């Protein structure tokens, strides 16, 4: 006689900001990911369950959720690594408005990304000339170290300061600003420093390193924020920031 099938007990957040958890029982499989569990529930137990995913192979970051209290990419998280006594707890990412179930509204996240001025502003040079930037140049290296962020929101959800201070720009936005500032072709680099120095800017960071600890692609936004702190101070001493 075959052994009884092992079952996972999965508690999932249902509803909006004032929702509740609902328990499902899901067959436990070898090499099963958390996203596999959520997909099983939506396909076989409750078709109304709302969640996001796209690539399923750890590239897009859209499947990020809170798994047993920790923000993660669920497609790259194997159940065997996170299950606790046969149980999983799944919730939407923290520090973002909940639309429904496991889906959050990313609008505030991207509004902060824009507020940090992490976009390229052309300089005064001829538009038909290609600027040459050496791969070994220090600013190019710094930009390369920060630019791989794909805006999944995991660091934003993991940041204590984001939860404490509503206007704090957050690690992803500030990391992007650091990458943009290190693009020497940008025509308004001081504009980036002005965007990140006031209000909920870079100097509010407490250097807890939660963003670096949780980043699925091993970036270090804390390092980027430290760079912005240093460069804003230099610009202030030079009289370039008021």
SSE layout:
Elements: E1 7-14, E2 20-27, H1 34-45, E3 64-67, E4 70-73, H2 79-82, E5 87-91, E6 98-100, E7 103-104, H3 107-115, H4 138-146, H5 154-158, H6 160-164, H7 171-181, H8 189-197, H9 210-214, H10 221-237
Parallel strand pairs: 1-5
Antiparallel strand pairs: 1-2, 3-4, 3-5, 6-7
Helix pairs in contact: 3-7, 4-7, 7-8, 7-10, 8-10
Q: Which descriptors apply to this entry?
A:
242 residues, five-stranded mixed beta sheet, single chain, 10 helices, alpha+beta, elongated, 36% helix, Ubiquitin-like (UB roll), Fumarate Reductase Iron-sulfur Protein, Chain B, domain 2, two-stranded antiparallel sheet
Folded structure, characterized:
The protein is of the alpha+beta class. Strand 1 (7-14) and strand 2 form a beta hairpin. It has a five-stranded mixed β-sheet with strand order 2-1-5-3-4. Strands 6-7 form a two-stranded antiparallel sheet. It folds into two domains: 7-104, Beta-grasp domain (Ubiquitin-like (UB roll), Roll); 107-237, Alpha-helical ferredoxin (Fumarate Reductase Iron-sulfur Protein, Chain B, domain 2, Orthogonal Bundle), CATH 1.10.1060.10. 36% of the residues lie in helices and 14% in strands. Helix 3 (107-115) runs parallel beside helix 7 and helix 7 (171-181) packs antiparallel against helix 8 (189-197). The mean pLDDT is 92. It is elongated.
CATH superfamily of the largest domain: Alpha-helical ferredoxin
Rg measurement, Å: 21 Å
**Major β-sheet strand ordering:** 2-1-5-3-4
Tell how many strands the DSSP assignment holds. Answer: 7
Task: Give the CATH class of the largest domain.
Answer: Mainly Alpha
The CATH architecture of the largest domain would be Orthogonal Bundle
The overall number of domains is 2
Task: Bin the strand percentage.
Answer: 5-15%
Biggest sheet statistics: 5 strands, mixed
Order of helices and strands: EEHEEHEEEHHHHHHHH
Mean pLDDT, to the nearest integer, reads 92
Helical content stands at 25-40%
Per CATH, what is the topology of the largest domain?
Fumarate Reductase Iron-sulfur Protein, Chain B, domain 2
């Amino acid at each position: 006689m075959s052994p009884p099938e092992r079952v996972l007990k999965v508690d999932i957040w249902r509803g909006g900001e004032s929702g509740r958890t609902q328990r499902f029982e899901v067959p436990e499989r070898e090499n099963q990911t958390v996203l596999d569990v959520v997909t099983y529930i939506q396909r076989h137990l409750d078709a109304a369950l709302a969640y996001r995913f796209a690539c399923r192979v750890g590239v897009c970051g859209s499947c990020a959720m809170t798994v047993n209290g920790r923000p993660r990419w669920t497609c790259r998280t194997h159940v065997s690594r996170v299950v606790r006594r046969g149980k999983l707890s799944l919730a939407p990412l923290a520090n973002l408005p909940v639309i429904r179930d496991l889906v959050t509204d990313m609008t505030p996240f991207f509004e902060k990304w824009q507020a940090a001025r992490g976009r390229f502003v052309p300089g005064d040079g001829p538009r038909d000339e290609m600027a040459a930037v050496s791969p070994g140049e220090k600013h190019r290296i710094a930009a390369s170290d920060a630019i791989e962020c794909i805006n999944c929101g995991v660091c934003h959800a993991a940041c204590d300061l984001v939860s404490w201070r509503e206007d704090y720009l957050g690690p992803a936005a500030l990391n992007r600003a650091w990458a943009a500032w290190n693009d020497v072709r940008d025509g308004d680099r001081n504009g980036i420093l002005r965007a990140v120095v006031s209000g909920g800017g870079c100097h509010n960071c407490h250097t807890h390193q939660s963003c670096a600890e949780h980043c699925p692609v091993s970036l270090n936004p804390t390092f980027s924020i430290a760079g912005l702190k240093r460069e804003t101070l230099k610009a202030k001493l030079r009289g370039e920031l008021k």
